[in-house]
Amino acid sequence: MIMLLINQEVDKTSQNCDFKKHHHYSRFVLGYHNKQPRKMTWTDTITKNEKETIETLKRLTIKDCTPKMLEDETLFYRFLKARDFNLKDAEEMLRNHINWRKEYQIDTIIKDYKASEVNKI
Questions:
Q1: What 3-state DSSP class applies to 41?
Q2: pTM of whole model > 0.85?
Q3: PANTHER family under this entry (predicted)?
């Protein structure tokens, strides 16, 4: 009985129709008429208002951000999301983060690190 069910499932997927096309999840990734997969990104899920808020936060803090921080395109989104897109709170949180990175020299810690004598033995 179990073998019969397995064989029936195999037969369903081996029919002429495309199984992925009918699977409900693949409609979000592939679309109804497009067979080429489309890469989903975080920008697909945010609203126009949220995009504008991200750009505003970026303009307010870009002078203080290091180039390493600017490489991460989700940086401003993450801080805004953590504060429910409250611009004032997100800016304060981001500035505290930037100050912490400068205080502990996060961006240069690997370059400036020197091994102790224990590692040389």
A1: coil
A2: no
A3: SEC14 RELATED PROTEIN, SEC14-LIKE PROTEIN 2
